[in-house]
Amino acid sequence: MSETGGNKAAVVSIYGQALAPETFDPTPEIRTLWDKVYNRMREEFGEAIFRSWLKPMALQASYHGTLEVSVPTRFMKDWISTHYAERIRQMCKESGEGIDRLEIVVVHGHVSEETTVETAPKSIKSNVNELAEKLDLSSPLDPRFKFETFVVGKSNALAHAAASRVVECNVPFNPLFIYGGVGLGKTHLMHAIAWEMKEKQPDKVVMYLSAEKFMYQFVRAIRAQDTMTFKEIFRSVDVLMIDDIQFIAGKDSTQEEFFHTFNALVDQNKQIIIAADRAPSELQGVDERLRSRMSWGLVADIHASTYDLRLGILKTRCGQLGVEVPESVLEFLALKVTSNIRELEGALNRIVAHADVTKADITLESTQDVLQDLLRSSDRRITIDEIQRRVAEHYNIRIADMHSSRRARNVARPRQVAMYLAKQLTARSLPEIGRKFGGRDHTTVMHAVKKVDELIAEDPSFAQDVEVLRRTLTG
Ligand code: ADP
Ligand code: MG
């Protein structure tokens, strides 16, 4: 896991705990692992528990088979430890990467000063870009994350439009705050803005980095007793983009510094762009002033993806990869892999890689085979009858209404939800499903699937309803 080794000099982490120096920063593999575990927690424990207890968990570090995550309060730590930690540890273990311990720490954001001093330049050079690079302040941009490769749909139209405006106009709103769930394209959009800025306004200094890196570098500057350089650099950029701002929850001194940077830049009419996994008002552990300050500009949320968007993204990806995948397979993936885009792309990559290795054609069967683990929920042989019963119960309508031709909204909508779940959770074809719903046509089922998908993207409480149903059926 670690690339350096042998160096045993203790580095003190920001909450005053010794970590192995080479593992302070989790590797991309560990980050991916944590993303997966995070998603699984949501699926397994359910939305309510996830929101109340697990969502605030943040990845901190990994070392010697231990994964360290932080929570904002002691109480939360105790609760998670007694109720969920063991299962989370198992999830980590199952995800590979050799993690078999979970360490939960409480992070209030107090900074430990006792540490080695590193040297840093004493004066600011004129070239901020160069200096920022030298000091490793900004993060590299992913060449795949451009506007050209970003597929626009209903769920992300606002965020996309806002991002485009920022590139075209001079500080149209400040800050731009983009938020949405994991893997829905926030980072992609931010990189796209940065790339476009670099191309269209090359004289501007654009800085992109994660809140985690901001904190890390800030702490480093404190240790090196050179916060002047840090402050000056951050206050002389034209565009500052901070990704995953939720990370600074509970980290008071970092928040304080960010707040000052933020104000200094806004005063100079410099653009700030922030991404987070939740709305500014929901950022627990973030100072009230900062929360309200962050919502002064434009707040754009990215909703859960729709079927059409997923299909569009898959087609774009096939184009990029230069592979041909049968339409039926793409449709199948767009229907089944709905949790997030990263997972969807992962699924596509897997079937493409598999076909490449086995030199076999990609078919619906091979896809189902290769993605068995991902599609597990549909293996449980949930029946359409069961779905109809549960959905009818949930919405308090009669089962007979699943088959009837009544079109009143209060029965038609649940019926559509049931069709949607039937498509997602069973291996039945559209015509088969139609037959089970009072002999309806397959186009009616398709329409229902799309409609529900749209509503999920538009209406969070509806989305939660469907999610609850899906979970009671699969769990
Ligand atoms: P987030 O930062 O919201 O967690 P990312 O920006 O990292 O998500 O997106 C996860 C993956 O999904 C990336 O590979 C990204 O390119 C892809 N992706 C997300 N949304 C879109 C979209 N609308 N069009 C194309 N690719 C997308
Ligand atoms: Mg991201």
List keywords for this structure.
475 residues, alpha/beta, GMP Synthetase, Chain A, domain 3, Rossmann fold, Helicase, Ruva Protein, domain 3, 4 domains, 5-stranded parallel sheet, binds adenosine-5'-diphosphate, binds magnesium ion
Condensed summary:
Strands 7-8-9-6-10 form a five-stranded parallel sheet, sandwiched between helices. Strands 3-4-5 form a three-stranded mixed sheet. The protein has a two-stranded antiparallel ribbon with strand order 1-2. The protein has 21 helices and ten strands.
Bound molecules: adenosine-5'-diphosphate, magnesium ion
Main β sheet profile: 5 strands, parallel
Strand content: 5-15%
Strand order of the largest sheet: 7-8-9-6-10
Report how far the terminal alpha carbons are from each other.
34 Å
How does this structure look, described?
The chain is of the alpha/beta class and 475 residues long. The chain folds into 4 domains: 3-107, GMP Synthetase, Chain A, domain 3 (2-Layer Sandwich), CATH 3.30.300.180; 147-302, P-loop containing nucleotide triphosphate hydrolases (Rossmann fold, 3-Layer(aba) Sandwich), CATH 3.40.50; 307-380, Helicase, Ruva Protein, domain 3 (Orthogonal Bundle); 382-474, DnaA protein, C-terminal DNA-binding domain (Chromosomal Replication Initiator Protein Dnaa, Chain: A, Orthogonal Bundle). The chain has 21 helices and 10 strands. The protein has helices at 28-45, 47-54, 74-83, 85-94, 128-134, 157-168, 186-200, 211-223, 227-234, 252-267, 288-294, 307-321, 327-336, 341-358, 364-370, 384-395, 400-403, 409-425, 430-436, 442-458, 460-474; strands at 11-12, 18-19, 58-63, 66-71, 101-106, 176-180, 206-210, 239-243, 271-276, 298-302. The protein has a 5-stranded parallel β-sheet with strand order 7-8-9-6-10, sandwiched between helices. A 3-stranded mixed β-sheet has the order 3-4-5. It has a two-stranded antiparallel sheet with strand order 1-2. Residues 1-23 and 109-125 have low confidence and may be disordered. The structure holds adenosine-5'-diphosphate (ADP) and magnesium ion. Residues 186-187, 243-244 line the site of magnesium ion.
